[in-house]
Amino acid sequence: MLILYLAGINGSLRAISVTNLTATSIYELEHSILAKTSKLSTALLEDPATKTIREKAKRLSLIDLLDQWTGVTIHFITLIALIVVLSCYGFYILAMFILVVQILQLYLIRWMSRKVEAISANQTSSVRMINYIVDLLVSRNTLPEVRMYGMSSYLVTTMKELFNGNFKQMHRKVILSETLSFSQSIIMILLNGLTIAILAITLGGRGQSAGLFVLLLQISSQIFIVIPALTRMYSDLTKSRVRFNEYSAYLELEEQVQRDPEDSIRNTDAMQITIQQLNYRYATNAQDTLKNINMTLKPGERVAFVGENGSGKSTLIKLIAGLYHPTAGNIQWFNGEQEVLAHNVTKGVRVVFQDFTKLHRPIRENIAMGNIAAMYDDSRLLAAMRKAEADSYGVALDTLVGPQFGGIDLSGGQWQRLAIARAYLNNGSLTIFDEPTAALDPYAEQQVFETFMKLGEQQTSIIVTHRLYMSKFVDRIFLFEHGEIVESGTHEELMKLDGKYRGMFNRQSSLYG
Ligand SMILES: Nc1ncnc2c1ncn2[C@@H]1O[C@H](COP(=O)(O)OP(=O)(O)OP(=O)(O)O)[C@@H](O)[C@H]1O
Questions:
Q1: What start-end ranges are recorded for coiled-coil regions in this protein (predicted)?
Q2: Which of the listed residues 251, 286, 317 is the one where a domain comes to its end?
Q3: pTM, to two decimals
Q4: 150, 358, 417, 460: which could join 390 in a potential S-S bond, CB 3.0 to 4.6 Å?
């Protein structure tokens, strides 16, 4: 009775503190997952298997886990206490029998709960696909094409098929758990009946008092109240433990080597970059995307990466910027004769990515992404905007961009200028422009190229471009084909070589007449 009373007090206390605990545990869980995510390599994060582990990890509820642990412990202690009382009155064989049946039940429940949980966990990637399709159907970026090409009903059908697949699995899960729970109820009813019969026959045979019979009947009915509650809690606890293991698996993923705080000085000198025998393969690909890349970029050199779509130019840019690590070979940085650890320079690399981030936040944040320390330095932000000609369309630093949040929207070219302004805010030893002018008008394109050339006077700089007239002015050109560098040299050298570059250049020139 004392234990039951304590259990009651525990229930009330739990109800009072549960709100705070829930909020804290949700925050802590999200926070620990995000903190871990920030330490993982880009390549690992892009791997769909990592996304699945993360989604599984996020299903854990720490408050439920705590709740279930407490519940199972209390119910288990209560059950043992009741069984001890029953044994004290001489019914130890019956008490042992009840205990053994319950332990067997718990084993069965554990097996079933793990199976059910595995079915739910396996649905995470198809749920991701369903969410993606819903996004395609409602997102502002995709809606025009989905409507124009009449894709809506096709996408809805695809979503329905995925949904049905998940539904079938859910159905299997429900049948499995209901069958087990029904069988358990039958076992409990039989066991309860058997207990009452044994008590009645034994006590009647010994001529014991009705009072003792009522007392033992009370104990047995308490036992059969506690057992289903314990079983249910244990089933939930087993599922939560599976989730906890998934969460732990995410936290145990191998982390990218972190910057050493002692030597993490941002270095802005122009540096030499030496790439040797570099190969790179994406986790999801069967073939190497880059093969046997060798090059040395001299300090202050301006180079262009050119070549057909998918030939690996952007991948090499990401490797140089330190976002990926070579599968084989290496990339080294030299300040004069002195080698500088890559992580000390890559932070200061100034990059305009091909698929840059469109931050649906104030203009200020869009630009300050390039150097977060300048977030409230209006004169630096405005200077960067001016350089990128991003100040010409009448926006103030605090103008909110992003129509879904009530802000203004920008054209593709205007967004691109913001991304360029972002790069101007950052000082580093290398500037990379990965097709920076794709969405710009010809005048803006020329201006961006001129700025690229000027920046190159102080820094090593790389431009990735399909517009070969730009490559005429750089110091060296690297022509990529199927992940390899097939030609390299100055514009004049490559024209004399009369190879692929010359063919490409002449084809482009003929388009302009
Ligand atoms: N995150 C990724 N995961 C798997 N494969 C990728 C990934 N990114 C690129 N690839 C593959 O690597 C190859 C090279 O792509 P990359 O973007 O480097 O080419 P690119 O020369 O820059 O092309 P483009 O001129 O079209 O921009 C392509 O076949 C592409 O499918």
A1: none
A2: 251
A3: 0.77
A4: 417
**Would you give the distance in Å from CA 178 to the centre of its chain?**
34
Which residue's CA is the closest to the ligand 1 atom numbered 26? 309
Mean pLDDT computed over 175-192: 84
Give nearest CA residue, ligand 1 atom 7: 282
Q: Are 236 and 290 in a shared domain?
A: no
Residues 68-88: pLDDT tens digits?
Answer: 999 999 999 999 999 998 888
Residue 480's beta-bridge partner residues?
307, 485
Q: What Rg do the C-alpha atoms of the chain give, in angstroms?
A: 34
Are 71 and 235 in contact by the 8 Å Cβ rule? The answer is no
C-alpha 324 – ligand 1 centre gap (Å): 13
Domain count for the chain: 2
**In this structure, are 246 and 309 located in the same domain?**
no
Is any ligand 1 atom within 6 A of the Cβ of residue 377? no
Q: Residue type for 417, please?
A: R
Tokens of 261: 């705080």
Range of the domain at 160: 2-251
pLDDT of residue 265: 55
Question: Look-up: residue for tokens 């202050």?
Answer: 300
In a domain, residue 312? The reply is yes
Taking residues 204-212, report their average pLDDT: 74
In a domain, 259, yes or no: no
Sheet containing 338-340: order of strands: 290-297, 272-280, 328-335, 338-340
**Residue count (the chain):** 513
Q: How confident is the model at residue 396 (pLDDT cuts 50, 70, 90)?
A: confident
Phi, psi of 356 (to 5 degrees): -70, 165
Q: Kindly state whether residues 225 and 291 are assigned to the same domain.
A: no
From the CB of 120, is ligand 1 less than 6 Å away?
A: no
In angstroms, the CA 386 to CA 91 distance is 90
Is 256's pLDDT higher than 50?
yes
Q: What are phi and psi of 438, to 5 degrees?
A: -55, -35
Residue pLDDT, tens place only, 457-485: 667 889 998 888 888 889 999 999 999 99
Choose between 59 and 177: higher pLDDT.
59
Predicted local distance difference test score (pLDDT) of residue 512? 62
Report the distance separating Cα 389 and Cα 447, nearest Å.
Answer: 9
> For ligand 1, is residue 46 a contact (CB within 6 Å)?
yes
Judgement on whether residues 234 and 281 belong to the same structural domain of the protein:
no
Atom of ligand 1 nearest to the CA of 312: 18
- Among 251, 282, 303, give the residue marking a domain's end: 251
**CATH number where 43 lies:** 1.20.1560.10
| CATH label of the domain that carries residue 432 | 3.40.50.300
Q: What percent of the chain has pLDDT over 90?
A: 33
- Please check whether residues 394 and 439 belong to one and the same domain: yes
- The answer to whether the CB of 365 falls within 8 A of the CB of 381 is no
243 and 280 share one domain: no
Q: Are residues 205 and 277 in the same domain?
A: no
